[in-house]
Write a structure and sequence with these properties.
InterPro entries: HerA-like, HerA_central, P-loop_NTPase
CATH superfamily of the largest domain: P-loop containing nucleotide triphosphate hydrolases
Number of domains: 3
Organism: Stutzerimonas marianensis
Strand order of the largest sheet: 10-24-23-22-11-21-20-12-19-13
Number of strands: 24
Helix content: 25-40%
Distance between the termini: 69 Å
Shape: elongated
Radius of gyration: 33 Å
Keywords: ATP-binding, Nucleotide-binding
Pfam family, one: DUF87
Domain Helicase HerA central: 128-288
Structural class: alpha/beta
Length: 599
C-alpha cells in the first residue's frame, strides 16, 4: 500500500489531469517506514489500473478557481496537476513506454524512493554511481556497459561542472572495473589545457602522460616529452598530408612521389646521398635549366651542413639569355664535361650522416622538386607553399614528435597534454593522433572486436568546430571528414569517442548527431539550446527547459543507454583527483598579497 493523493479527472490523449488532496502538498512524507516525496513538478505518481500501476511524471500544477471545497472549516480552491505517463509496473517489474492509460476516477498514489530507484536502476549497475538524482536525492547507478559502448557527449558552459563530470565518469570506471578492462581496452585523452597530467583518473602505473611542448627543446632522455610515431607511419601519405596540410590536386601527388622514393630506396645505405649527387648533376646538365633549382640546391647543401658545396654554389649563376648555369662565368654544357671538371668533385662530398628523419624529409622534398622541375612535371609556384610549410613546421614538429621503430610501452590510459604547444601544432596534432589510433586499431582488431579503444577529447570545439574562419575551407572539410569517419565507422571496429565542449553549436552537426549518450550541464546560448533540442531525440521538453537554470555540477543525463532522462547532481571529486580547471580564488589570492604587503 501507499499514500493516496488524488484521482484522475481528465484524460486528453497522453495528457492527464489529476485532482489532488490538500494534505499532499507536503515536501516529504513517511509511511510505514518508507520515505515519499510530495506532489510537485518532476515527481512521480502511480495510478492503479487493474493489476498494473501506471507511472506518471508531474509536469504542471494549477488551482481551479471555479471550484472550491471545505477543508478543516475553511473554503479552499481545488488543486489540480498535469501529468504524463512514462511506463508501468506489472508482475515483471517496470516497463518504459506508454502502453496503458488510466481512466477517470482511478486513484493516484505516491511512489516510495525504492520504487523510484527501481525505475532507473532496472538495467543499470547499482554500484556504478557518479551522483544522485537532483530532486529525489537518490543515488542511482548508471548502465556502464551500455554507456561506454557508445559515443558520449558532455556539454556545458564554462564553470558548469562538465570537467568534473568527465573526470568522475572515468575515475569511477577505473576504480571499479580496472581488472575487467585491463588488457582489453585503452583510453586516450587529448588534453588541450593540461588538466589531466597529475593524479587524475588512474594511478601512475596505469597511465602514460605525454607533456608536449613547442616552447622548449624536448628532453631526449625522457620518452614522454615527444609522441612516438613508427618509421613506416611517419613516411605515409596520410601523415604527411596532415602534418603539412597538402592540397589534394597537386601537393598530395607530389608528396606521394617523395614517399615512393623513400619506400624504394630508403633502406639502402647511402642512397639519399647518391640521390642528391645525381640530382645535382641532372640539374647542371639538363637541356633546359630552371633558375629555381639553384636556390633549392643551396637549401639541400645547407641542410646537409656542407659548406664546401655552399661556397661552390656562390660562384654559380643562371644566365638568362642562354638559359644555362655558369661557373665563374663559363657555361656548363649538357655533355657533363665542364660539370665533371669544376663541380663534381665538390658535389661528391655531400653526405647525410647524422641527419634525423625530419632533415631527411626536407632533403627528399627539395630533391624531388628539383627532379620534377628538370622533368617539367610541376610548376614551382604550386609546390613552393608546401615546401615552405614543411621547412617552417619541422622546427615545432621535431619538438613534439619522435620517429622510431621501437614501440612505446602501452598503458591503460594515455594522456596527451598540448597545453604548451603553439596553435599551429594544436590544430594538426589531434588529427594525427586520432588517425594514428584509429588506423592501428582498425587494422589489427578482430571481427567482432575483441578489444576497444576510447578517445576522449576535452574542449572538443578546438578541433571539431564547424565555424572556424581562420583556416581554408579545404583544410576544414578535410579535418572534419577525418573525425566524422571515425565517429560514424569507429563503433563497428570497437572505437568510441567522448567529447566535452562548452559550445556544442560550434561542433559539426554530423558529429553531434552521431553521439548516443549525453551529459548536459547548464547551457544558456540560444544556438546551443536549439542544437540540443533538435538533435537529442530522447530529451523531453521538461528536462530541456531545466538546462539554462541548472546549478554547478548538475546535469541532464539522457541517451540510448537510459530509458528515461534523469537530472543528476554529480558528486565532486577529491581535490587531488579534480581536473586542473578550478577557478582562481581571487579573495584568497589578493588577501594573501595584501597580508604580505602589510608585513
Amino acid at each position: 500500500m501507499s499514500i493516496r493523493v488524488g484521482e484522475v479527472i481528465a484524460v486528453h490523449g497522453t495528457k492527464l489531469v489529476l485532482k489532488i488532496d490538500e494534505q499532499s502538498s507536503k515536501e516529504t512524507l513517511f509511511y510505514e517506514g518508507e520515505k515519499y516525496k510530495g506532489v510537485s513538478i518532476r515527481e512521480y505518481l502511480s495510478i492503479q489500473r487493474g493489476f498494473r500501476d501506471i507511472v506518471c511524471m508531474v509536469e504542471g500544477e494549477f488551482l481551479d478557481e471555479s471550484r472550491t471545497e471545505m477543508h478543516e472549516g475553511r473554503q479552499t480552491f481545488v488543486r489540480k496537476v498535469e501529468a504524463r505517463p512514462i511506463g508501468y509496473f506489472d508482475s515483471s517489474g517496470f516497463t518504459q513506454g506508454i502502453k496503458y492509460l488510466p481512466m477517470i476516477q482511478d486513484a493516484a498514489y505516491l511512489l516510495s524512493e525504492e520504487k523510484i530507484r527501481s525505475i532507473f536502476d532496472r538495467k543499470a549497475d547499482s554500484d556504478f554511481k557518479i551522483g544522485s538524482m537532483l530532486k529525489e536525492e537518490i543515488a542511482v547507478g548508471l548502465p556502464w556497459k551500455r554507456l561506454f559502448n557508445s559515443h558520449i557527449g558532455i556539454f556545458g558552459n564554462t564553470g558548469s561542472g562538465k570537467s568534473n563530470t568527465l573526470a568522475k565518469l572515468y575515475t569511477v570506471l577505473f576504480d571499479q572495473k580496472l581488472p575487467l578492462i585491463t588488457g582489453k581496452s585503452r583510453f586516450i585523452i587529448l588534453d588541450f589545457n593540461g588538466e589531466y597530467g597529475g593524479e587524475q583518473l588512474a594511478a601512475a602505473d596505469h597511465k602514460t602522460v605525454y607533456q608536449l611542448s613547442t616552447l622548449t627543446n624536448p628532453d631526449l632522455t625522457d620518452p614522454t616529452s615527444r609522441f612516438p610515431l613508427a618509421l613506416r607511419e611517419f613516411w605515409q601519405l596520410e601523415t604527411m598530408s596532415l602534418l603539412f596540410q597538402a592540397t589534394p590536386n597537386t601537393q598530395k601527388p607530389f608528396l606521394n612521389r617523395v614517399i615512393s622514393g623513400w619506400e624504394r630506396y630508403g633502406a639502402i645505405p647511402g642512397s639519399l646521398a647518391n640521390y642528391a649527387k645525381w640530382t645535382f648533376k641532372a640539374s647542371f646538365c639538363a637541356g633546359e635549366v630552371k633558375p629555381a633549382t639553384l636556390d633549392l640546391m643551396r637549401t639541400v647543401a645547407r641542410r646537409m651542413e656542407n659548406q664546401q658545396v655552399l661556397d661552390m654554389l656562390t660562384n654559380v649563376t643562371w644566365h638568362r639569355t642562354g638559359g644555362r648555369f655558369t661557373y665563374n662565368g663559363a657555361f656548363i654544357g649538357t655533355d657533363g664535361a665542364q660539370y665533371a671538371m669544376h663541380i663534381a668533385p665538390t658535389v661528391e662530398t655531400l653526405d647525410v650522416v647524422g641527419l634525423d628523419e625530419f632533415d631527411q624529409l626536407v632533403l627528399r622534398v627539395n630533391l624531388q622538386l628539383i627532379s620534377d622541375l628538370n622533368s617539367g612535371y610541376v610548376q614551382v609556384e604550386h609546390i613552393q607553399p608546401l615546401l615552405k610549410r614543411v621547412e617552417s613546421s619541422l622546427a615545432s614538429l621535431r619538438k613534439v614528435l619522435s620517429v622510431s621503430d621501437v614501440p612505446p610501452e602501452e598503458h591503460l590510459l594515455t594522456v596527451i597534454s598540448m597545453r604548451r604547444c603553439n596553435n599551429e601544432v594544436k590544430k594538426v596534432l589531434p588529427l594525427l593522433f586520432a588517425k594514428h589510433y584509429y588506423n592501428s586499431h582498425k587494422n589489427t582488431v578482430a571481427n567482432p572486436p575483441n578489444r576497444t579503444i576510447h578517445l576522449i577529447v576535452d574542449e572538443a570545439h578546438n578541433i571539431l568546430s564547424d565555424q572556424s574562419a581562420r583556416e581554408s575551407e579545404t583544410w576544414k572539410d578535410y579535418r572534419l571528414e577525418q573525425f566524422e569517419e571515425i565517429i560514424k565507422e569507429g563503433r563497428k571496429f570497437g572505437m568510441f569517442i567522448t567529447i566535452a565542449s562548452q559550445r556544442p553549436a560550434d561542433i559539426s552537426p554530423t558529429i553531434v548527431s552521431q553521439l548516443h549518450n549525453f551529459f548536459i550541464h547548464r547551457l544558456v546560448n540560444d544556438r546551443d539550446l536549439y542544437l540540443v533540442d533538435n538533435t537529442i531525440s530522447t530529451l523531453d521538453a521538461l528536462s530541456r527547459n531545466l538546462i539554462p537554470g541548472l546549478s554547478q555540477g548538475c546535469c541532464v543525463v539522457t541517451g540510448t543507454a537510459f530509458e528515461l532522462p534523469m537530472v543528476i547532481q554529480v558528486d565532486r571529486l577529491p581535490s587531488s583527483k579534480q581536473p586542473a580547471s578550478e577557478d582562481v580564488d581571487l579573495e584568497k589570492l589578493w588577501s594573501d598579497d595584501l597580508a604580505v604587503e602589510a608585513e
